[in-house]
Design goal:
Blueprint lengths: L9 H15 L2 E4 L12 E8 L5 H12 L4 E7 L4 E6 L7 H10 L6 E13 L2 E7 L2 E6 L4 H8 L3 E9 L7 E9 L1
Parallel strand pairs: 7-9
Antiparallel strand pairs: 1-3, 2-4, 2-5, 3-4, 5-6, 5-8, 6-7, 8-9
């Protein structure tokens, strides 16, 4: 007689494995959440979502939905750290509002969204911004020394990390935490 464990259909085993991974450590999918971006290619590298992941089965559903977003190369869910790290396909950028809405639609409230990106510092209506592609520019919220670094960068690529500020009455912005000339 076969044990009940052996009679689980493959999807049930996969779900149990995913649940165990959530309970005992990070769950990685696809290419993982390690940055895939070339150090010389503009685009988003990584998006990190701070969120309390108290419901393991909900976290599995959230991970699955995030993988379906355009240009997601991998997702790593880490309940103990309260983080979801999304690796972005090289040379691409994510729709950050869609990421936030996906998290909310599963029933979680994101505490913050951080972005690491590579691009060129540019001027957007008199304010600094980072151009990630010819058709996508993300305004930067000035931090101490940002103007000097932007001037120093000239036409060189920069790597910027910051906290995404969702649009309230205008365009989304990135509160710069670090900026390094490549």
């Amino acid at each position: 007689m076969k044990s009940a464990r052996r009679n689980h259909p493959p999807p049930a085993r996969a779900a149990l494995g995913a649940l165990a991974a959530l309970l005992f450590g990070p769950l990685s999918t696809g290419a993982g959440a390690a940055p895939l971006q070339s150090p010389n290619q503009p685009g988003m590298v990584r998006v990190t979502i701070e969120v309390e992941l108290s419901c393991p089965s909900c976290a599995v559903g959230l991970e699955r939905r995030l993988r379906r977003l355009d240009y997601v190369a991998g997702v790593e869910v880490s309940p103990p750290e309260g983080q979801i790290v999304i690796a972005v396909e090289p040379g691409r950028h994510l729709d950050l509002a869609a990421v936030r809405d996906t998290v909310r639609n599963v029933g979680f409230t994101p505490d913050g969204v951080s972005v690491t990106a590579i691009g060129h510092v540019t001027d957007l209506n008199g304010a600094p911004a980072i151009a990630l592609s010819p058709d996508f520019t993300l305004p930067l919220v000035a931090a101490d020394g940002l103007a000097a670094l932007a001037i120093e960068a000239g036409d060189q690529l920069v790597r910027v990390t910051g906290h995404w500020i969702a649009p309230q009455d205008g365009a989304p912005r990135l509160q710069v935490e670090s900026l390094e000339v490549r």
